[in-house]
Design a protein that fits this description.
142 residues; mainly alpha
Length: 142
């Protein structure tokens, strides 16, 4: 019980690691080589090239992964339900679990479940808007 949330975090990261790694690898491969060549001529160290060339070039993909990761974590249900065997405790309650249970287990309260779904959607929209506003400072589009 004590380590349930830690194991869920590891499982979630492991499940999304392959896609994230593939997107980052493809993005890094598309960074223009001329930028690295110019940095070499200027005498930039590998760390400087990483900070000033690679990270800004992959920042749109990092931003995409951040948004989809946060939205996905709020909507996570299947992994928690399967790994807990359907036994819910205070350590493994997720927002979608409430919506799911109010459509059956707790008396077919469809209106309440719909309201929870709307609230969850509004929270995700607000988080996304906040992320887009904050991204102006660290995401660089070429």
């Amino acid at each position: 019980r004590r380590h349930f949330m830690g194991s869920m975090i590891v499982m979630s990261v492991w499940c999304s690691f392959g896609v994230s790694l593939l997107l980052l690898f493809a993005t890094i491969k598309n960074v223009p080589k001329s930028l690295y060549e110019a940095a070499d001529i200027d005498g930039a160290t590998p760390l400087r090239k990483l900070i000033h060339i690679t990270v800004p070039a992959v920042s749109p993909i990092l931003f995409y992964l951040l948004i989809t990761g946060i939205i996905g974590s709020f909507q996570e249900f299947t992994l928690f339900n399967v790994m807990s065997g359907g036994n819910v405790t205070e350590t493994n309650i997720m927002p979608v679990w409430w919506i799911y249970n109010f459509t059956g287990k707790y008396g077919y309260r469809y209106g309440y479940a719909s309201a929870l779904g709307v609230v969850l959607g509004a929270v995700l929209v607000l988080l996304s808007v906040l992320q887009f506003k904050l991204s102006r400072k660290w995401v660089f589009y070429s």
